[in-house]
Amino acid sequence: MLLKSVFLITLFFFFFLFPLSTSSATSPPATVCIVGSGIAGSSLAHFLRRYSLPSSSRIIMFDRNPVVGGRMATVTIAGHTFEAGASILHPKNYHAANFTEMYKLGRKKPVRSESSISLAIWDGQRFVFKTMSVESKSPLVQKIVSLANSVYMLFHYGFSLLKMDNFVEDMLSKFLKYYESFETRPIFETVDEMLKWAGLYNLTTRTLEEELFEVGLSPLLVKELVTVITRINYGQNVDINGLAGAVSLAGSGGGLWAVEGGNWRMAAGLINSSDVELHLLEEITSISYLGKYYELSSTHGKTYTCEVSVIATPLDEVNIQFAPRISIPKRNLQHTHATFVRGLLNPVYFGMKAVSEIPELVGTIEDVDIPFSSISVLKQHNETDMTYKIFSRKVMDDALLDDIFSARTDTIRINWAAYPHYNAPEVFAPFILDSWHLYYVNAFENAASTMETSAVAAENVARLILSRLFGDGPRSSPNCSSDEEILHSDL
Ligand SMILES: *[C@@H]1O[C@H](CO)[C@@H](O)[C@H](O)[C@H]1NC(C)=O
Ligand SMILES: *[C@@H]1O[C@H](CO)[C@@H](O)[C@H](O)[C@H]1NC(C)=O
Ligand SMILES: *[C@@H]1O[C@H](CO)[C@@H](O)[C@H](O)[C@H]1NC(C)=O
Ligand SMILES: *[C@@H]1O[C@H](CO)[C@@H](O)[C@H](O)[C@H]1NC(C)=O
Ligand SMILES: *[C@@H]1O[C@H](CO)[C@@H](O)[C@H](O)[C@H]1NC(C)=O
After folding, report:
1. Is residue 425 within 6 Å of ligand 2 at its C-beta?
2. What is the pTM of this model?
3. Beta carbon of 477 within 6 Å of any ligand 5 atom
4. Which of 3, 113, 162, 302 gives 150 a disulfide partner, CB atoms 3.0 to 4.6 angstroms apart?
């Protein structure tokens, strides 16, 4: 288990589950405006319907982009579709799992079994760590190689690996509390309260590095493997908060997956089945509270009135004028450049003789002179024709790519305002931005940013909205199944 799990050096994760609901059948309808159509906005719409927002209520959703999905998006190269943003789901991402099942979306496994992915850690001069890679489809050979690699990893990092595993498992077991039923799980008005209840708050007050030294990890493991993982997942080093760090390390245990055709399809399914009036390519420029309702203005020169307004996108890089003004802690987003290259790596760049000596995943340690965070093979079209994904903090310009690649036929660059730039101790914006009905789902992103954590935050905000609108809020009554409102849920 340990040997297997430590070998999985993988990407983004998100966890989850669902409670039952009831209706506020006699409550008056309300219009809810949602800014953002990513996983936060789409799952919020879903949970509002599921938890029985009065059926005649309108949900109006805005997105400045031409498509839904936010930071879930795909690129197509050589006829193959690849995740460009949020990529990987963890087996315990129960909300994502249910969304995928509800809309009959397929699950895609990583191309190779994770245990046979070869990994190397590049320090700018040489590979300080490199696993073995064997081109064999034989499960037995793969198993032997995987075992040999695990033993090598254990030899290199020692029993610190075990401590790392325990650290992650402890975080995961606490996170699972967010899937408990309404009977035992309160509605949270603040992120702080939500984290404290699950026992996760303290992790956000210190850096990952501090947490890991405290549990006794070796400095070598932190400097190499852990840093590689945080750089891949969050584009940052071990200074990120301990919770984001633990989430980042949680890609262990196997079973990582993604949605066939793209993770954005979860958002598409949720929106399509939640009776949402969707306005794409329409940016909200102001939100004004006019007493009993909000007036939203958009770039189309239109205005909308809603009793409830929800921000389901990071406020850091949007330009919305709020009246009255709101005040939230300052936060920067970490930009990650995802560069897709079809071509072939240049072994000379890595001091190798042949491309085949370069592992499928090249991670890097923290060093300002290394121009990328990771390079991984997404698809091998043939021996000299591959598709790669590179993560970097700065744009990968042509001159640099020409150094790293010996051949290059397609290049696609995406600059993501990907996740918060983490800073321990984290200071959280509130879920409730004013004293009325202006909400902010992405306040939770300072804890950790994943598809699943966004769904978990949205689920709580849906309960919060209903309880504040209708007093008692959604209760988990075992007698609710006879209520016709429940038919509104998306199952
Ligand atoms: C997912 O769906 C299953 C089956 O409908 C249900 O039992 C479970 O509670 C759901 N999980 C979550 C997290 O909602
Ligand atoms: C969090 O830290 C505080 C202050 O150091 C401590 O009193 C509390 O017990 C800790 N909580 C958990 C769950 O570890
Ligand atoms: C929306 O849902 C309907 C069924 O409710 C389905 O027929 C249709 O294909 C869905 N559209 C999209 C874009 O998912
Ligand atoms: C690999 O694919 C490229 C582009 O499709 C092609 O030009 C090349 O001949 C192929 N090489 C081999 C060895 O099949
Ligand atoms: C639920 O149903 C049971 C039996 O049908 C009944 O005894 C109970 O009072 C009901 N509870 C509520 C909250 O209506």
Report:
1. no
2. 0.86
3. yes
4. 3
